[in-house]
Amino acid sequence: MEQTTTGQFRVLAGRDGDEWLLLDTESGDPTYVARGDATDLEPGYRIDATLAWTDGDPTLADHEVTDETRIRFTRTDEAIFEAATRCWDDAVSEGSGMNARVTHGTDGDANGIVYTFADQPGQQDVFAEFRDGVKPLEPLLVRAAGGRDGYHEERQGASPPFEVFVIDPDEPFVVVYIVLDPDGFLAETVLDTYFATGSLSERL
Question: What pTM was estimated for this model as a whole?
Answer without folding.
Answer: 0.90
